[in-house]
Amino acid sequence: MTNALAGMYAALLSGFADNEDLDEKRQRNIVDHVLRQGLKGLYVGGSTGESGLMSTDELFEQQAVVKDATNGHETKLIAHVGQPSLRDSIRLARNAEKLGYDALSALPPHSYRFTPDEIFHYYKALAASTGLPLIIYEIPGRVGRESSVAELSAILDLPGVAGIKFSSMNLMILSQLRSKHPDSVIYFGSDETYMTGAIAGANGGIGSTYNVLGKLYVAMDEAMSGGQIERVRDLQAISRTYVERLFEVGVMPGIKLSLRHLGVDCGPCRAPFRILSDAGRKPLIDFLEQPDVKPWVS
Amino acid sequence: MTNALAGMYAALLSGFADNEDLDEKRQRNIVDHVLRQGLKGLYVGGSTGESGLMSTDELFEQQAVVKDATNGHETKLIAHVGQPSLRDSIRLARNAEKLGYDALSALPPHSYRFTPDEIFHYYKALAASTGLPLIIYEIPGRVGRESSVAELSAILDLPGVAGIKFSSMNLMILSQLRSKHPDSVIYFGSDETYMTGAIAGANGGIGSTYNVLGKLYVAMDEAMSGGQIERVRDLQAISRTYVERLFEVGVMPGIKLSLRHLGVDCGPCRAPFRILSDAGRKPLIDFLEQPDVKPWVS
Amino acid sequence: MTNALAGMYAALLSGFADNEDLDEKRQRNIVDHVLRQGLKGLYVGGSTGESGLMSTDELFEQQAVVKDATNGHETKLIAHVGQPSLRDSIRLARNAEKLGYDALSALPPHSYRFTPDEIFHYYKALAASTGLPLIIYEIPGRVGRESSVAELSAILDLPGVAGIKFSSMNLMILSQLRSKHPDSVIYFGSDETYMTGAIAGANGGIGSTYNVLGKLYVAMDEAMSGGQIERVRDLQAISRTYVERLFEVGVMPGIKLSLRHLGVDCGPCRAPFRILSDAGRKPLIDFLEQPDVKPWVS
Amino acid sequence: MTNALAGMYAALLSGFADNEDLDEKRQRNIVDHVLRQGLKGLYVGGSTGESGLMSTDELFEQQAVVKDATNGHETKLIAHVGQPSLRDSIRLARNAEKLGYDALSALPPHSYRFTPDEIFHYYKALAASTGLPLIIYEIPGRVGRESSVAELSAILDLPGVAGIKFSSMNLMILSQLRSKHPDSVIYFGSDETYMTGAIAGANGGIGSTYNVLGKLYVAMDEAMSGGQIERVRDLQAISRTYVERLFEVGVMPGIKLSLRHLGVDCGPCRAPFRILSDAGRKPLIDFLEQPDVKPWVS
């Protein structure tokens, strides 16, 4: 089961109208662009999709639009359903199952400082709520503490849990999880250092910048499998430079600006995210036009 | 304007049905109990109210129920409207204004790591969206970083901003804010060390345990004003011991258990909060039955 | 025993020659100045004294000079002996006992991330090494983690341990320690918020800025005992403003500059501490010349 | 210059007598054992050597003993000279130069929270004090904050600075430094995840467990250069398991226990490090006797 999910996924952006409403046309524009990257699949309704600023009802709608927009393609679809309350998470999970999604994923509960026991039971109930495989999540920067290997391992052992999205810099923990759970999918969540997670045992990646540089990540994954370390480093250097540019203007606003530059009508971010100053745009656009970058975004 | 808001407020709990739906009857039970504490007012729809697990629509409904349940009382009502997106925050703020609330408050935006600039503009837009005074919020444990005095001061200087709820241990910053903003309300958010915030310049408090020990906090505030330091310490010791008991079982579940023990039918917490183990209950109940505590909760 | 130690102490500066060697004359100049502040005593060889940059041999010499310079005065002397290794700590402790110091104190071992068990045994061995009362230390900013109440309480229960220097913002823990250890001395280590530690249960203070504003801290302590909260706040505001000025130029260099401005030939700090830029000096000197400050430093 | 220093180094242990004095014979025993590992060199007087618990005079003595014990071998010698004060650091640096060491290294100043400007000037003065190349150090866990790329890059650009020992989990920063400083040596300081630092751009490693598993790290480095990713992972798994065992008993005590088991009379750690409980020893010894481990430690 898990091998079928391994690989490289775009953490899909959400398409908003100029008034910040969810916009079906723009959502389809984004999906169409990402499908052309040749990735393994899409991670729908996650943090990159600004789901932290969207209502559960909007996420229902988005799940349906994205599913419809990918009909006829071989892409895998993972629905992020990690809403603050367990009941909303389960409602979203069941909707995704009904629509034909391939897997679920969920942030750990994060609206409060929940105990490890509360996190365990959240994932246990969620995993039991559908027949879909569930991808859990480690993201200390969002939750406020690092999980131990024992805590993560206990959740990975639950029926229905197929893997983890690992967005932490602690690669000791990643490699310990790989050793204890050889059949689990481990997606590394740091685009700019993907190669370090891959050598530590990740067999897939999920990232924001894959919306723009998807082809490059596919190539990096192949080079990694082939032991072509120098090529891996060269491709990673391009990805890292892009992230450096994004840090200057804000990651989500910067990616949406990039897509607009590439001809994708994707709309704005939702407030409190701020619109880019004109000053910040130029280095980002210049990057996309560099001779060594252009082939990856064309 | 600000003096009119100073004082002691309960961070109101939410009343849920056994199936975790918002329950009007139980919400009224909680309001009735808290009104008997003699506090200055209620802080409605905040973190203590599990608003982090509720939808914007539920918060609309709760605002109306609480307003109705307090009709005929002199209590002040502050509506917490800090939803993840600015647009939902503004919708809630306007609803509160229409219903006749006295003030607004909002967590800083916290679904992502927003920049100080984004936080400033969030509060600026929110403060401008109604005619009600706005109470901002400093809570590093939730947002992931401590704001500087300059950042907080710039927001306090915005038109329509009347004060701050300060839930941080950095009392140097609290006293600097008091010095720079003598007319602002500063509510201290740490129940168990209220006296330390008060001596540093807070002229009010907002807390979870005020739902249970409201009379005691009113008495502590009076003793502080009168320079009766030993009495302040004695009352604070009771409050601190209660918080120690709550830490053993979880704060929100423990307060709801306390209320039920006191005869208030308030229902459960919403998952992922967990139900108390029986083992944890006894020390909490024993505390409420202590001879020095009982008068404060009767 | 412990009551005899309670009160306000200057964390004594070290006097260095222009070439940064320990300088007896300048050390005596500093001691003479501080003795005129009317404080309860001196805390010798601590962090403020740049002991983190001095050898054990230098600390031996300093203990002797300071003891000699205080002969004939009623001041209490606490020797800080918290060197990285236990053996050096014990050697310093025995030297202090031989010289007639009144008490010992020691940072928790901090050269490595020691376990709570290692810290406990360090203090146990040190407390047993002389007949002097020992003041332990809580300073999360230096050690990298916050101790629990249980850990600190176990050390306070050791034979020979008389109290704690508490340099943490967690006043819940301070008040819990006060409740569990009513006979221990608790010195609060944050000059700029002394009043918040005092109301939480501290019965003394040890601070860097006491070298300059010692008289003011004595007055603040008296006002606190008398329940004169407004006077406490006024005095604390002066102390806080001084600390704000010091933060702009570096605490230790700024205090030495202050003393030189007040006519005390105390020499430079030791590198890596940097010399003040001229730009930074003016606000600091201006502060010392303010009409409301000048009486306290004359 | 820098290529000559690249490679794998043991962070050398110190040999203490049973009374914890520095012991020449035991120091030589350790050196002899490590020389047989086939590593590029030794890193002398660093944190692993418990230099944080030793006096500057002892470090002088150790430099001489180690130099003498390696006469006739091709091993490179890097002297760690990062004492708390700049003057002691310089004295140690000049001694190392006189003795014929190949390079210097120094922890950033860490006894106080120094500013980036103070850290820069510390390294600048140290680099100028001898003709030896200097290896700087990034170790947020010890210093209390993470340096920015700009801060580290400015120090790497100083005359005489040849590289960095990087003991941080932030591999984005490591790869940015590699990109900006292609000629610098970057030693990765995390033994248990060496492969992740190596793929990100490290061209060497310095570690505690190299004292025991030195041959394995040499083999891992060769496999990495050859693109044999599976072999790298297999070797890293052994190293990681060893570190897991060490975490159970304390790293430094555990390594000394390991050496004693392998027949090296190396003595105890210095207090406050604690002696191992018997309970903790067995899993460590069992590891060293595993069939897949034994060849690496024989």
Task: List its traits.
homotetramer, 298 residues, alpha/beta, TIM Barrel, 13 helices, 8 strands, Aldolase_TIM (chains A, B, C, D)
Question: Please, could you describe this protein's structure?
Answer:
- Chains A, B, C, D: The active site is at 137 (proton donor/acceptor), 165 (schiff-base intermediate with substrate).
- Chains A, B, C, D: Pfam families: DHDPS (PF00701).
- Chains A, B, C, D: Belongs to the DapA family.
- The structure is a homotetramer of 298-residue chains.
- With 298 residues, the first copy, chain A, is an alpha/beta fold.
- The first copy, chain A, has one domain: TIM Barrel (Alpha-Beta Barrel), CATH 3.20.20.70.
- Helices cover 49% and strands 12% of the residues of chain A.
- Chain A contains 13 helices and eight strands.
- Chain A has helices spanning 24-35, 56-69, 86-99, 116-127, 140-143, 149-156, 171-180, 194-200, 210-225, 229-249, 251-261, 278-289, 294-297, and strands at residues 7-11, 41-44, 76-80, 103-105, 134-138, 161-166, 185-188, 204-207.
- In chain A, strands 1-2-3-4-5-6-7-8 form an eight-stranded parallel beta barrel, surrounded by six helices.
- In chain A, helix 1 packs across helix 2, helix 2 packs parallel to helix 3 and helix 9 (210-225) runs antiparallel to helix 10.
- The longest helix of chain A is centred in the last third of the chain and has 21 residues, at 229-249.
- Chain A binds chain B through residues 20, 47, 52-56, 84-88, 109, 111-115, 117-119, 121-122, 125, 141, 144, 250, 252, 270-274, and chain B through 20, 47, 52-56, 84-88, 109, 111-115, 117-119, 121-122, 125, 141, 144, 250, 270-274.
